[in-house]
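Last lecture ended with a question: if I hand you only a sequence, what can you say about the shape of the protein? Today we answer it with a concrete record. The protein is Putative integral membrane protein. Below, first the input exactly as provided, then the predicted structure, then a couple of comments.
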Amino acid sequence: MLTRLLRRLLFWLIGVPFGLALTLFAVANRQPVDVGLWPLPWTLQLPLYVQVLGGVGVGLIAGVCLSWIGSAGLRARARASRRRTRELEREVTRLRLHQQDATPAEAPALPRPAAEQASLLPGMIS
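The predicted structure:
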């Protein structure tokens, strides 16, 4: 519930003003500009805001892709950790079932902890 409220708040505090600023930028920069595609003989005539926002968009997409590629090792380690966790959880379940099935005669007697033995008064029978 809190996450949804926080998202709505961020949308209204950041998203709407940002969108408004982009709209104002686009309206203020409608004049056409020639773009030469250097090794090719063609030129394009596009509004300035398309070039600027297009460049920002291409940079954003390139950054996301490079970040995703860079985190491939982290994702692989996370998958391996999840796999290992599942294996260990199955092992714990198996051992608990085995422990419940074991009779008291089968279970070895464990010695008392040293702290408990030291706290007994001399001469007391435990």
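Comments.
1. The helical segments are 2-28, 48-70, 72-101, 114-119.
2. Residues 65 and 95 are 44 Å apart (CA to CA).
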